[in-house]
Amino acid sequence: MERRKSEPLSNLLSQYLRQEGLETPLAEYRAVEAWPQVVGEPYASLTEEVVLRGQTLYVRIRSAAARQELLMKRGYVLQKLNEAAGAHILYDLRLI
User: How far apart are CA 3 and CA 1, in angstroms?
Assistant: First the structure.
């Protein structure tokens, strides 16, 4: 049997997700799930809630000192979360 159109499976899967409208929700899920790995264990243990609304990630942190430290690193954290998501979907980070 002769192959006519051979494509990598990753391309076909990506195309399917885009057609079904699942590409963005999957990237959003990846960004939220990557929070503990991006900020590290000390900050992850102080995190109470991580919610994505629109293109803003809202994170509830118990410690005011940790909140201030993360505010200073906001740009870096957003960049790393977008890299983990595989797309530029987050534009703002609100620490509450």
Answer: 7
> Looking at residue 1, what is its pLDDT?
60
1: which 2 tokens? Answer: 């049997």
> Facing residues of 72 across strands?
none
Q: Which amino acid is at 13?
A: L
Q: What is the pLDDT of residues 27-65, one digit of tens each?
A: 999 999 999 999 999 999 999 999 999 999 999 999 999
Contacts of 47 (CB under 8 A, 6+ apart): 35, 36, 39, 59, 60, 61, 62
**What SS3 class is residue 7?**
coil
| Tokens read off for 52 | 């994505």
